């Protein structure tokens, strides 16, 4: 039987153009002195990232920018802290960053897509 080689070049080239998105649940937290060593306030565009992500990223993850998308809105925020009790790729946002995505009264949101800038 004659077997044709399968063309995979298209997959390889498109994969480099689109970063895989991480899916997270997100909420607001009250920032202070984060593990990255800086104080942040609710008006700063910052986040705490889930411990599994924080701990496994090749150091340093501190001060990396992420872009988070939710229901057609997006925000650019800087990682300043580690969320010890967040599973998966979940995020805690400052109120400034959270309210760029959704009304703050939403409290918790599900299905935020994010990746490093
Ligand atoms: C996100 O929230 C949903 C709804 O509560 C839950 O089923 C899911 O397990 C959560 N995922 C993570 C990673 O926390």
UniProtKB/TrEMBL annotation:
Signal peptide positions on this chain: 1-20
The organism's place on the tree of life at top rank: Eukaryota
Keywords: Signal
PANTHER family: PTHR31836, SRCR DOMAIN-CONTAINING PROTEIN-RELATED
Name of this chain's protein: RlpA-like protein double-psi beta-barrel domain-containing protein
